[in-house]
Design goal:
This is Imidazole glycerol phosphate synthase subunit hisF. It is a single chain. The protein is an alpha/beta fold. The chain folds into two domains: 9-90, 3-Layer(aba) Sandwich (Rossmann fold), CATH 3.40.50; 112-414, Aldolase class I (TIM Barrel, Alpha-Beta Barrel), CATH 3.20.20.70. The protein has helices at 79-90, 152-162, 183-195, 219-228, 238-250, 258-266, 323-333, 354-363, 377-386, 396-399, 405-414; strands spanning 9-14, 16-17, 30-35, 49-54, 58-65, 68-71, 112-121, 127-130, 166-171, 200-203, 209-210, 216-217, 233-236, 271-275, 277-282, 293-294, 305-312, 317-322, 337-340, 368-370, 391-394. It has an eight-stranded parallel barrel with strand order 7-9-10-13-14-19-20-21, surrounded by nine helices. It has a four-stranded antiparallel beta sheet with strand order 2-4-5-6, with no helix packed on it. Strands 15, 16, 17 and 18 form a four-stranded antiparallel beta sheet that branches.
Length: 421
């Protein structure tokens, strides 16, 4: 962190317009930033500055002089606000987009609300959005069909219109053993990126692999294909656990791991590491070599302590590494963000694991996305008020239309938590 702020600076932050600009609206709004460096205002450049943004201190968000216009944020990922900037880049005579009624203006970095779509093929070979418990995604019926909650491209488009700040795809198709042969999922990314103008993350099977013909592919080649298809970030799960274990054992960076390769070429902001831990209750902090928390309430057998054990393969296999130690390692190896799941909370609808999220978000200097357990709007304010999570992710409650995204955001606004409208 820089003075307590997470780096990279990822998310929707508020523009402050300094002067008339041919490409910027006069209204202060949230736009999407993702960067680890900044240009600072000074007497030498003050005549160029058309807007600033604050992240600990003011930095230059855009410049404008004559026919020269440039921005630090990403208009192509800033929703309708960003599209209006691009329209005026091309034709300065284009008027501003109509102002929507909002309850509160943008003032600082917003907390992000992310919609996650688990995608796999059904028995007919069609890709569907599904949801289950520990990858059990079949209906408990006579037909035992794959649970179908919608088509991925259509559902992602609807979530964009509903106000999702990012869309995350988890690829759980059979192509995970041959990611570059996964043409359907690549098409999902391409079609989604044509109509969805917020960041897209994709995860599932991104690693080094050898195909059936004996040809070896690096994780960088796999990730590059996803980036070319429209992904902005890739999420690495099980492979990252093995990488961290190897690093802890040797203490050496090889430069060949998927985290190191992809972050070196595309930047660490493009690498999200997904952590899938489960809580393990213990009697004493001395029982394990990993980071331990003291419980606010006793465990099932009166235990006073617990640690969080990492898993792989969708929670089916435990690994000898703690979530705390894992998070610290992947940050050092080049991850730019952490997606923090919790096996104990997944699908329960009883809220995020606040102890876990606080533990990890306090331990690392990169943004943390809270995942697993959301069941109502209050769970989102709870995680933002009690941890340093930068974003909160949900899936089932959005797919089943139990909790609309806008209801989450209106609740957060009511709790004085900054969100993008």
């Amino acid at each position: 962190m820089s003075n307590g702020f997470k780096v990279p600076h990822i998310g929707w932050n508020a523009l402050r317009i300094n002067k008339d600009s041919k490409i910027l609206d006069e209204t202060e709004k949230h736009v999407y930033f993702v960067h680890s460096y900044r240009a600072m205002p000074s007497d030498a450049n003050k005549d160029w500055i058309s807007s600033t943004c604050n992240y600990g201190e003011d930095f230059i968000a855009s410049i404008s002089r004559g026919n020269v216009h440039a921005v630090q944020f990403h208009p192509e990922k800033s929703g309708e606000v960003g599209l209006s900037v691009l329209r005026r880049f091309l034709d300065p005579s284009v008027s501003s987009t109509p102002k929507k009624s909002i309850t509160k203006g943008a003032s600082k970095l917003a907390k992000r609300v992310i919609a996650c779509l688990d995608v796999r093929a059904n028995d007919n070979g069609d890709l569907v959005v599904t949801k289950g418990d520990q990858y059990d995604v079949r209906e408990h019926t006579k037909e035992n069909e794959v649970r179908n909650l919608g088509k991925p491209v259509e559902l992602a488009g609807q979530y964009y219109l509903d106000g999702a700040d990012e869309i995350s795809f988890l690829n759980i198709t059979g192509f995970r053993d041959f990611p570059l042969g996964d043409l359907p999922m690549l098409k999902v990314l391409r079609y989604t990126s044509e109509t969805v103008f917020v960041p897209l993350t994709v995860g599932g099977g991104i690693r080094d692999f050898t195909d059936g013909n004996g040809r070896y592919y690096t994780s960088l080649e796999v990730a590059s294909e996803y980036f070319r298809s429209g992904a902005d970030k890739i999420s690495i799960g099980s492979d990252a656990v093995y990488i961290a274990e190897a690093y802890i054992k040797t203490g050496l960076k090889t430069g060949k791991s998927s985290i190191e390769q992809i972050s070196r070429v595309y930047g660490n902001q493009a690498v999200v590491v997904s952590i899938d831990p489960r809580r393990v209750y213990i009697r004493s902090p001395d029982d394990v070599e990993f980071k331990v928390i003291k419980l606010s309430a006793p465990g099932p057998r009166g235990e006073e302590y617990a640690w969080y054990q990492c898993t792989v393969n969708g929670g089916r296999e435990d690994r000898p590494i703690g979530a705390y130690e894992f998070a610290k390692v992947v940050e050092e190896l080049g991850a730019g963000e952490i997606m923090l799941n919790c096996i104990d909370c997944d699908g329960q609808g009883k809220g995020f694991d606040i102890d876990l999220i606080k533990l990890i978000s306090d331990a690392v200097t990169i943004p943390v996305i809270a995942s697993s357990g959301a069941g109502c709007v209050e769970h989102f304010s709870d995680v933002f008020q009690n941890t340093h999570a930068s974003a909160a992710l949900a899936a089932g409650i959005f797919h089943r239309k139990e909790v609309p995204i806008q209801a989450v955001k209106q609740h957060l606004l009511g709790e004085n938590i900054e969100v993008r409208i």
